[in-house]
Known about the structure:
Shape: globular
Strand content: over 45%
Distance between the termini: 61 Å
Largest sheet: 22 strands, antiparallel, barrel
Mean pLDDT: 84
Amino acid sequence: MRRALETTVHIALLGAMLSPHLAYADEDAPLVVTVRGSSAPAFVSRTSTDDRVREPIDAASMLAELPSVHVRRLGADGAQAALSIRGSASSQVGVVLNGIPLTSGADPTFDIGSLPLWPGAAFRVYRGFAPASLGTTGYLGGMVVIDPPTSLSGSRTDAQLIAGSFGTLKARAGDARTIGPVKLGVGVFGSRTDGQFPYDVTNPRTGKLVTRTRENAEAMSAGAIGRAALERSWGTLGTTFLVDTRHVGLPGSVGFPTTYSGIDTQRAVLGFDATMRVTSTLALRAQVWGRRENSRFADPFGEIDPTRTSNLADQSILSAGSSVILRGVRLGPASVAFLVDARTERLVPGDGKTVLGAIEASRFAGGTGVEVEARFKKAWHVFASGRIDARRDGVSGVVASRMPDTPTSTDIVPSGHVGIAYRIGPLATISSHMGLLRRFPSFAELYGDRGSLIGDPRLRIERALSADLGIRGDVPVGRVAFAYEVAGFVTDAKDLILFLPLGRGTFRAGNVGAAFLSGLETSASLVAKNLTTTLSYTFLYTENRSDDPLAFGQPLPGRPRHDFSYDAAYRMGPVQVRYGIDAVAGTTVDTAATVLVPPRLFHGAGLSLDVPRFSGLRLGLEVQNLFNVRVMRVPSPLSNELVALPVSDFLGFPLPGRSFWFSVRFRAP
């Protein structure tokens, strides 16, 4: 059955790419070339600091409110956090800044807690499928696209200061303007927090709750992001940059807290792009970019990893790439885009040595693809996106017995999807997509991390067959605007890569077979004269289909069954009040599904004031976890009694109780 479905998808992709003349277009509706991105009929969520009901404390909380997007935090604001889309692993989500990939084979898991935030920051989340022209290779769950600061929507100057619980202080500023033919946008940001908060645990001797303080959880960061573009009649020349530095304490779990462990990272990203308008419909875009990331992991007393023989572990990730996209090629009524991209990356260790020895790994990866888009009979919108990707890996400095027959490996894989949308009218548009997805193993999965993670150079490529179907629309009723979206999705994944326990404190990478995921994602918003409400709910069903008899048929760990977010805001003159709810439930910890993460239900409230006679000045107060929920009681796997566990996303890593955030924002008139 699966082979038949894959064959069907391949035939559909081939037919859509090679025979676009089969689509019928309305001659009165010319196709428009979009040189800044694709208008593919995909399920895409958008969020920015300008259109949120809540005060934007951090980027992780903004993304967590979107349908099918789940953020798992290791602590308070500023702590490390992992991102999942439609039940994917964090390593299966791509992150891109204006065409520059921030995730790679050297570092596939993006710490969403490090995502910068500045005034006017905007993000797009492709749930499941993304256009081939985004330029990254290897994702199963979806993609996050970061839009750099720009003056396309008008000039602006913003500044914001936030002070809050746990010794937190955040400062942000942004400016966007047009000076002659040049469009400029820049954002700067900085924050610090000690991360200390009280949490409750059960005393194993007395059975009573005792309060402890989360320590070694400090976080500090600073950086800048910007874009400059020269726009002329023939096209555009632009440059995009991102630089930041960050220190994060690693407090460990509740059972094994640490005192001195931490990680320091520095990141520098620079890209240059040029777009040339060849004709009224044809555009050529070329881009080159480079990225360097340095990290220094410190565990001086072996509190986290006793296998390391050095107090420090340093590594650098060096990446560079380029891409060329030709858009607007007309083949009959269809618009076709052709693309080719390539990148090279190296993982270079520092002086830190471990029991496994140092590793130096490299990868050359690239792909070529095509996008076909057509509209016909006004209501139909058809889209196809396909890629052929290749990679060649090399490694040195690894124990010889752990290597395959050759120190290099080469793979070539296809991926892509087809989509169709039918617009019933202004009230509803029905969309559906089906496709094949692939992900290459990362360096850590192939070769380990020179410590407690043992890689396997013979890992197979992750693959998935996925499909979705949904409806979205806008329903204006007088002065009330109502928007909604409902979508269902299914994913059949093979050769998933997980790190499995191998003795105490050691994990080995391996392909664990198969998994099935399905779900329902819903979102809605209502905007009236003074009232704004937003709602997002995701139901997720997962099933482990590996060969492990204890895990077969059980849900995949770390994926919540229910994820709900709601906000309502009401404005009375210069004052706005807000109330919201966040709920997550049904998350398992182990593959046998015998241990549950405690469900959490957080309430929040906010108040803001546009200060009279001071145009552009706004004061705000935000309260998170309003009722100070710090423990939840769940059934014990060893008895029928309920046990109290700290509220958390990862078992053993508690989330904070009630927190307060005071903000001052100024936007120049």
